[in-house]
Amino acid sequence: QARAGLISTVEVLKVMEAFVNEPNYTVWSDLSCNLGILSTLLSHTDFHEDIQLFIRDIFSPIGDRLGWDPKPGEGHLDALLRGLVLGKLGKAGHKATLEEARRRFKEHVEGKHLLSADLRSPVYVTVLKHGDSSTLDTMLKLHKQADMQEEKNRIERVLGAISQPELIQKVLTFALSEEVRPQDTVSVIGGVAGGSKQGRKAAWKFVRDNWEELYNRYQGGFLISRLIKV
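^ PSA aminopeptidase, sequence as received from the core. Prediction below:
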């Protein structure tokens, strides 16, 4: 109804606040998706930091309950929920989540304590979102060293979380390099487009500037339509 302009978005936010004690992964996934859309819309306004604060407030209680480590008797959906919640809190700049993500990322890179598969994406996204050129270099190094395609894809999808304009350009250049399989280039560009307001503008310009190469590469297949969609 809010998207159709029939009610105020404020009403939606009030409804969302009522889900603060919700344990169900599917519900949180839906909340996360809708908050993501709102956050994207508000990134073009003065309210972007306000929506980040709202996200931190909504997701903090469930984040505190879940913690970082699996508990005995947990199911698959709990692991998915943990990844979703920590990623959301980290991207939104939740201080404790950011500090813990950086600590665990450092141990992972140094080989002291490898991150579980469920925690890699949220940790990667968090450290990149609030990271610098050395963070990006470390991620690209992890990508190069990864012996499983699944890990390479996981890294490719989150690289767009980086915020600085010159680093965004570096990620876009990487997308068309030989380091990335042609079928995965769209994931990297899409990650940049979804990562930030600056990323969207940069990705749009990049696609226009390299349109001929991208179009010839995908020959009107489903990947070109996916690229246009993102």
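The chain has a mean pLDDT of 95.
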